[in-house]
Structures are given as C-alpha cells and as structure tokens.
Amino acid sequence: MSPTPFLHPYARPAAHGADFLTIVRGEGSMVWDSEGRGYVDALASLWYCAVGHGRAELNEAATAQMSRIAAYHSFEIFTNEPAEQFAALVAARSPMPDSRVFLTSSGSEAVDTAIKLGRLVASLGGHPERHVVVSRVHAYHGVTYGGLSSSGLAPNQEHFGPYLANEKVAAHDIAEAEAVFERRGDEIAVVLCEPVQGAGGVRPPAPGYLARLRELCDEHGALLVLDEVITGFGRLGGWFSTERYGVVPDLVTFAKGSTSGYLPLGGVVVGERVRAALEADPSFVLRHGFTYSGHPTCCAVGVANIGVLEDEDLFARVPHLERRFAEGLGSLLADGRVAEVRGEGAIWAVGLGDHVDATGVRNEMLTRGVIARPIGSSTIGLCPPLVITDVELDRCFEALEGALVAAGA
Ligand code: PLP
Q: What is the mean pLDDT of residues 20-36?
C-alpha cells in the first residue's frame, strides 16, 4: 500500500492510508471515526473546539453568510460587515483600551504579523536596529518563519534554517530575560510569550514572570506580545490571560478558539502604543495583509462563536474543570502513575515517568475511547471542549489511568 495523495502536517510522509484515523462526525465533546467508534475529544481537536462539535448556530452563521456573499477581500478600500463586527467584538473584550484588530487565517500568520508590527513600530520610530525577537525555551509560535524562528522546540527547527534574529530565554528563569535585556535591550523589538505554554508541554508561568517581562519591556522600550492562540477565548476562564495574570500586553495574537476551529480565523489585537505609531502619519500605508484577512464567512462564524460562548456562559465552567483536572490528575500523581501534573484553567498535561512513552499512552487511550495528545516523548496533553461533562471527564481520567497501567507506569 502506498501513501495517499494528502501529505499530512506533522506526520510521517511515508505513512500509509491505513495508519490514519478517519474522523467523520462530532457532537459536543464526542467525535466518531469511520468505523463508528466514539471518542471523547480530550484535546478539543487541536486545542481549539471550545464550544464543542456540531453546533447548529455556527453552521447557520456560515450558511447565511455564504448565501449572501461567501468571500470578498478587505485590502485597500474594501470591507465587510462580519469582519467589522468581529473586530469590534474582540476589541471590546481586549485587555488593552482602545485596541484595534488585524485579522488572519491562522496562529502562525498572527504571530508573524505581530513580529512585523513590532519591527515596523521600531522602524517608524527611527530605530530599525531594534529588530530582535526574544522568545522562550519550549515556546511554540507556529511554523512560518517569524514564529518558527522564535520556536523553543529544537526538533521543529531542524533542517529549515537559517532563521531571524532571535534570543531564547528559559521559560521560568526571569534572570535570563533580564540578562538578555542587559546585553541587547536597545535591539529588542518584541518579547513573544505564551502565557501558558501549550504545544511545548503545557507550562503555566512562574509567579511574577509575566509581570517582570512587562517591566523589562517598559524599561527598554520593547513591545510585549502575548501569544494567546491557545489561551485566548476562554481556555483560562476569560477572554484573554490578562483576566488571570493581570499583565497587559501591547499586542495579543489569537486563533483557534476564535471560531472554535469551525473555520480558520486568527488575528492580532493591537494596543494603543502600536496603534498610535501606525496612525500618526495619515498617508502611511500598512503594506501587510493576507488574501483571507477579514474573510466574511470566517468572521460571521467568529461572531456566532462569541455569541455561544457568552449566551451559555461557558467561561463559568472553567473553574469547575480546573478543580476536576487538579483532582483527577492529582490522584494519578499521588498514586505514582505520573511524574508531574501541569496546568491551569482548562488546559492540562501529565509528565510521564522516564520509561513510559507518550505515543504509546495515547494509543492505549484511543482503544479506551479517548483522544489525548502526546507532546514530545514524555507528556500527555488534555484540553477539552469547555462543554465537556463530568461523565466524559471521568472517562478521560479512567482511560489515562488504564493506559498508564498498560504502559507499565
Ligand atoms: N501560537 C501558538 C501559541 C500555538 O499554539 C499555535 C498552534 O498551535 C500557533 C501559534 C500556530 O497556529 P497555527 O497552527 O494556526 O498556524
């Protein structure tokens, strides 16, 4: 058997069709494969399906917009109502006052946009030498060159270099960030930081870390970019991480939860400082944009998704999920089945013992009807739809425990 024409992302190109699991249907926190087997979707697909699968409201919003006009670009003089409406809703929920919103289709595009805006602001201010990006070990900021240059995951960078100027600092050691600013403070355009690192293993910030990054940026004239592609739109119980950690950035990147993944939509929330630089000269043109920036159907679904999140008060479920995860995973830790439990809000992970392989545990969980995500060789990530029920959560914990036992943990 040979591979199918679909060259899969983050997969072995040599894998055969039979190596893949074909997902055909979803409802709430459940998905079903082509053989009719049901699974609890314990990672909300790829960290994005906050409102759960099969939402008629989102389907209807897409259908209604497509029946008027599915797509029209927003370059130069053109705009559309769903993009204006979605941007206004996000700006009103932004941690920065008077913000505006640039729209993209993905998190990678959002991150590259934020880096470019940071360099642009420096250059417009007469400091093109201020071009360095500071990011963190274990960081995941997507796969395009800006974000990949800022990655803290070496295997993803292998073979693809050379990269943009970047300084990497340890995720929890603020002294390393201080040292980089000491050395290169005048050259730093942006500090790029996931409030809770997601794809790098689910790592919440050390107490005071984000606040000190904010101070360092202020002391040295750099911009703070919080990459909230996973943490935004409810994962931590609020629209953005500022509601949990109190740190106000200059730019925020988002994607994933913005439509719960129903259609691709990301963006950058632009705070006052960047906004002022962009608007200072009325003749200045922002020469940056994607064909699908402000895509009407994606934005209509984004508006409907915000409606569902608010009408059903889904963020209010996050403290409950947080308690359930802390208890459920905590008991695996107490029993010595896992080496570490990390997480906050509705995003969690377990670190496995040395002799236990994460992909093996994931595969065992699949046979027990739960889809979790192996991260590297020693972490299992859990980040379910916010609508997950207690019964479904129990199923996740039972499947994880069963898989760990089977894997010899
Ligand atoms: N930034 C963060 C924090 C992410 O978690 C991701 C994806 O997981 C990205 C950026 C890249 O997003 P995308 O895969 O939509 O390009």
A: 98
Give the pLDDT confidence score for residue 1 in this predicted structure. Answer: 67
Q: Does residue 349 contact residue 381 with C-beta atoms inside 8 Å? A: yes
Residue 141 domain boundaries? 59-311
Average pLDDT over residues 248-262: 98
Angle at which helices 107-124 and 272-279 cross, to 10°: 60
Identify the DSSP state of 51.
Answer: T
Which of 8, 10, 105, 140 for mutating ligand 1's site (highest number of atoms within 8 Å of CB)? 140
The domain spanning residue 381 has which CATH number?
3.90.1150.10
100 — phi, psi (to 5°)?
A: -125, 170
Q: Is the pLDDT of residue 150 over 90?
A: yes
- Rounded distance from Cα 408 to ligand 1 centre (Å): 33
Specify which residues 114 forms β-bridges with. none
Residue nearest atom 1 in ligand 1 by C-alpha distance: 141
Asked whether residue 360 is assigned to any structural domain, the reply reads yes
Per-residue pLDDT at 145 exceeds 90: yes
- CB-ligand 1 contact for 265 (6 Å cutoff): no
- Is ligand 1 within 6 A of the CB of residue 106? yes
Task: Name the average pLDDT for the chain.
Answer: 97
Extended strands (E) in 179-324: 188-193, 223-227, 251-254, 266-270
- Mutation test of ligand 1: which of 193, 229, 268 has the most ligand atoms closer than 8 Å to its C-beta? 229
Say if 6 falls within a structural domain. Answer: no
Distance 8 CA to ligand 1 centre (A): 17
Predicted confidence at residue 171, as pLDDT, reads 85
Q: Are residues 121 and 257 in the same domain?
A: yes
Is residue 7, in this structure, part of any structural domain at all?
A: no
Residue-wise pLDDT tens digits, 43-89 = 999 999 999 999 999 999 999 999 999 999 999 999 999 999 999 99
Q: How many domains does the chain have?
A: 2
Statement: the pTM of the whole predicted model exceeds 0.90: yes
